[in-house]
From TrEMBL:
Gene3D superfamilies assigned: 6.10.250.660
Coiled-coil regions listed: 45-72
Subcellular location: Cytoplasm
Protein's recorded name: DivIVA domain-containing protein
Main localization category: cytoplasm
Gene Ontology CC entries for this record: cytoplasm
GO biological process, one term: cell division
Keyword flag Cytoplasm: yes
Alphabetic keyword roster: Cell cycle, Cell division, Cell shape, Coiled coil, Cytoplasm
NCBIfam families: DivI1A_domain (TIGR03544)
Length: 101
């Protein structure tokens, strides 16, 4: 998964200053309140994106482990039938973890 870079961080939004003009405009309190909500949502989105990247990496690792175990079972690298049973049981548990029940 390609990681996207963002132009502004939550801190950048929080610290942004605007030049004041002598024209009629918006109430600064309303703008600040709205920006506070955006900062909060933005930080949550960054946290969720980070968690998604971690889960994606873990998913890839588990899929590789499943494939490696399938190859071991298929090539008969287990020393006994009970070892193959243990491998098949582990594959089944990994598939449940990766793909759900």
């Amino acid at each position: 998964m390609e990681e996207m870079t963002l132009k502004y961080s939550a801190k950048d939004i929080y610290e942004k200053e605007f030049e004041r003009a002598m024209v009629r405009g918006f109430k600064p309190e309303d703008v600040d309140g709205f920006l506070d909500d955006i900062i909060s949502d933005y930080q949550k989105m960054e946290d969720m994106n980070h968690q998604l990247m971690k889960l994606t990496d873990e998913n890839k690792k588990l899929k590789k482990e499943i494939e490696d175990l399938r190859i071991r079972v298929a090539t008969g690298r287990g020393d006994s039938g009970s070892q193959n049973y243990d491998l098949l049981k582990r594959i089944s548990n990994l598939e449940k973890a990766v793909f759900g029940k």
